[in-house]
């Protein structure tokens, strides 16, 4: 491979250094010029473009008439409405019919590297049908919401697909969330059905998921809402007559229930605009919102982006190591590869168990062809050194993907050189829970790569950089030659979420009314001189910790629920591996004083209310916070303090008590 510029080793590359351009790698399906033309065509008439794609990617039971109706201003977007299909049928049954019955559809590797299961398309069809019948026996019907709180075992994607098969909406809650967070999501969706497992395994440790579900049932109005809790057993023993956990009323031993079902089930034919799933995600204010994704548009977008962004071919083994509890797990573990008739890989463990070569060992043993992870994992593994990836034969890999946050050029280089041996494409895929699939990404063999840039919009996506003040498209470059502003999209695409469950107003005001006529991503970004997209980060109060989205408001509300905390302000601080970590400032209630045990209590409170991944790294207790005279906390100043940018604090004269700033600077310096 030759590159357009000299390539240099990742060692010693300064963060500010101008990144180099890398030639596309691998056999090109089309040229960059062809991409540009095809992209222009795809956004010229989105209805015509997606109509054609929908016919080629999916099997329809009843064809649709018009691809797109509605627009951003009215917030009534519908794709392929009137058309009928079933997503599980498209992901599984049609491949069984088309000669792939005996092809492996899913490869699972558990926490222990020798714990492996392989399921063919026929196995999947039979087991998913049994699960659908079991759900039906428990009372689940078309349109119901089924909450899934499970570890990464094959039964997780299969339960999701069983819901899709019977027209129920799954609402998967990441198994790292606490009982409080789980209860909140069950209650918000009024979900009568919960599917869980007795335990999860990660890094050699067992996690008592059933215990967490039981604790959730004791909260809010959950027990009144729930009619059935179906419990998979992580180590199911057919001969054991008792459940290996403390059975509660409404608990059902799922493995037994499923084993007693017929392995055939007729899929429900759904309208393209019927709900497929709910997924709760953090916003800048209030409680997490339940985003609704619908059947036809989402399925098409999952299939289409998996195929194009990863150059997926027949026979590929596609490995996305995200958890099914996040959107990446939905689109790229469960739906994308299966809709294309390829093989998907499901991984239960962590990148460092039993050692930091785990990913690369899996790539070698299973001959993985596409591998997809997040910058936080890459940075972590990079610290353990090149000798781990060097030990393994990873020649099967064609494409290495990254998602979740901007990848720093050093991590990109390491992924490219130490993992990919400079022979694989790195696809930097920018997208969100709301977008359903990639919206800005390079294409293997087509787009040149710049470390840290997600390059160009995907097909059918019309991106625009808006001036945050005027809301007008930015046309002038700044002194660096960048067109900088906030990232928005001009027209609907099939994979976008349609609403927030029960709160369309919130959907409109968060995404479609901020800049009238556009979908607003909440990210700031710029285009460089070559038109490459660079994501800078969130402009709202959403933090990105190890690729997990966390609203500052959620952490603050957990903290103020403690009697000692009068007010709390949470900001992000840069973290070498996590990307961002959480810093919390808590103003103590009169009569309380700072102590080590109080800080500990506050940490565990956040763990309890949200989950371990949302715990603040730094908690600074103080008698006062920097506030304007009207009582607004100046988070901007706190952000500068934790980022050690105190020389650029800006004007602090509007503060009610400017002296607090020096106090906090000293205190944070001590804590850091
Ligand atoms: C898929 C996912 C969305 C937010 C998004 C942005 C950040 C995701 C990125 C990226 C730069 C990338 N983000 N991918 N930033 N480059 N390739 O992560 O969804 O959890 O909803 O987070 O993540 O800030 O707005 P979600």
TrEMBL record:
Enzyme class: ligase
GO BP terms: acetyl-CoA biosynthetic process from acetate
Domain AMP-binding enzyme C-terminal residue range list: 554-632
A GO term, aspect molecular function: ATP binding
Originating species: Phaeodactylum tricornutum (strain CCAP 1055/1)
PANTHER family for this protein: ACETYL-COENZYME A SYNTHETASE, ACETYL-COENZYME A SYNTHETASE 1
Entry keyword annotation includes Ligase: yes
Keywords, sorted A to Z: ATP-binding, Ligase, Nucleotide-binding
Protein family membership: Belongs to the ATP-dependent AMP-binding enzyme family.
Protein name: Acetyl-coenzyme A synthetase
InterPro entries the UniProt entry points to: Ac_CoA_lig, ACAS_N, AMP-bd_C, AMP-bd_C_sf, AMP-binding_CS, AMP-dep_synth/lig_dom, ANL_N_sf
Record's catalysed reaction(s): acetate + ATP + CoA = acetyl-CoA + AMP + diphosphate
Record domain AMP-dependent synthetase/ligase: where: 98-493
Domain Acetyl-coenzyme A synthetase N-terminal, residue spans: 35-91
EC number per UniProt: 6.2.1.1
